[in-house]
Amino acid sequence: MALRTCHGIGGPLIAPINLTKTTSRIRNRQLSVRNCSLDQSQSHKQLVSEVKSKLEKEYSSLPAGKNGRDDEDMILWFLKDRKFSVEAAIAKLTRAIKWRQEFGVSKLTEESVKNVADTGKAYVHDFLDIYGRPVLVVVPSKHLPDVDDPVENEKLCVFLVEKALAKLPDGKEEILGVFDLRGFGIENADLKFLTFVFDVFYYYYPSRLGEVLFVDAPFVFKPFWQLAKPLLKSYASLVRFCSVDAVRKGYFTEETIPANFRN
Predict the structure, then answer these.
(1) Whose CA is closest to 163, among 171, 175, 178, 149?
(2) Residue 43: band (very low, low, confident or very high) from pLDDT cuts 50, 70, 90
(3) Do residues 236 and 208 lie in contact, with contact meaning Cβ atoms separated by under 8 Å?
(4) What residues have CB less than 8 Å from 206, skipping those under 6 apart?
(5) Distances from the Cα of 99 to the Cα of 80, 175, 247, angstroms
(6) pLDDT at 5
(7) For the chain, where are the alpha helices, taking DSSP H only?
(8) CATH T-level topology, domain 111-261
(9) pLDDT tens digits, residue range 171-193?
(10) Averaged over 40-63, what is the pLDDT?
(11) Percentage of residues of the chain with pLDDT beyond 70
(12) InterPro entries in the record, alphabetically (predicted)?
């Protein structure tokens, strides 16, 4: 039994505190939270099984295996994205699986995108940012839509997204996109491709893009952004305009800064 000081009309009183009851309440509360978490996990597993079963019955022609109709991690991710609505998750997931098959995502390799990757227009950084996110760097000044093959650009985009996601540490779910807009000119503007990039994330890699940095955007970029912004749906809210210095100090250490932001 512990003592607690109470103030009443006649001055301080000593009131007993029942530590046994207090400890019991704390334990019951902890058990309640733990049980709630277990119940939620069990519920999620049941929903994954339900989606998996429906896909097998109604979409048996879709491929199975990793990133296929029976990939439980992928099913859970799309359930989370659709707020655990089974029908909504199935609709979005089947579209994504069909797209992956038609686009040939599994066939993309370093060698197959080498020519366009060698331009340096985009790459996955070797290091994570300070928040533990893989980093996809894009250099629009090296993008020339009147010269480049749009299909090859799209392949590079998807290959790099896959590569970045493969670098996700345990417990991390999002990547960082960094657009180095220094040197951007009218000849680099490509509304169709920018829309493709964000559509890829919205439809096929939902909730994987955590933040997008537009670094040192020149004046000529602003009217282009005003045209692009309405087309990017909710992803436009992830965009942050910032300086090179802000990138250096706010997202990386001295050792992990991408090479093109060092000078």
Answers:
(1) 175
(2) confident
(3) no
(4) 77, 78, 81, 92
(5) 20, 21, 34
(6) 46
(7) 19-58, 72-81, 86-103, 114-117, 150-166, 191-199, 221-228, 244-251
(8) Phosphatidylinositol Transfer Protein Sec14p (3.40.525)
(9) 999 999 999 999 999 999 999 99
(10) 90
(11) 84
(12) CRAL-TRIO_dom (IPR001251), CRAL-TRIO_dom_sf (IPR036865), CRAL/TRIO_N_dom_sf (IPR036273)
pTM higher than 0.85: no
**Domains in the chain: boundaries:** 39-105, 111-261
Residue 41, classified by CB atoms within 10 Å of its CB into exposed (0-12), middle (13-18) or buried (19+), is exposed
Would you say how long the chain is, in residues?
263
Q: How far apart are CA 108 and CA 110, in angstroms?
A: 7
Per-residue confidence at 44, pLDDT binned at 50, 70, 90? confident
Is the distance from CB of 177 to CB of 136 less than 8 angstroms? Answer: yes
- Check residue 110 and give its pLDDT: 96
Phi-psi region of 122 (alpha: psi -120 to 50; beta: other; left: phi over 0): beta
Q: How many helices (H) and strands (E) does the chain have?
A: 8, 7
Q: What is the pLDDT of residue 193?
A: 93
The residues near 161 (Cβ < 8 Å, ≥ 6 apart) are 136, 175, 200, 201, 205, 208
Residue pair 136/176 in contact by the 8 Å Cβ criterion: yes
List of long-range contacts for 151-155, beta carbons under 8 Å, 24+ apart: 152/113, 152/115, 152/116, 153/116, 153/193, 154/193, 154/196, 155/108, 155/112, 155/113, 155/116
What is the chain's alpha carbon radius of gyration, rounded to the nearest angstrom? 25
Task: Please report which helix (H) or strand (E) contains residue 215, including its range.
Answer: strand 209-215
Nearest CA to 224 among 202, 199, 193, 200?
193
Lookup: tokens for 220: 């000529």
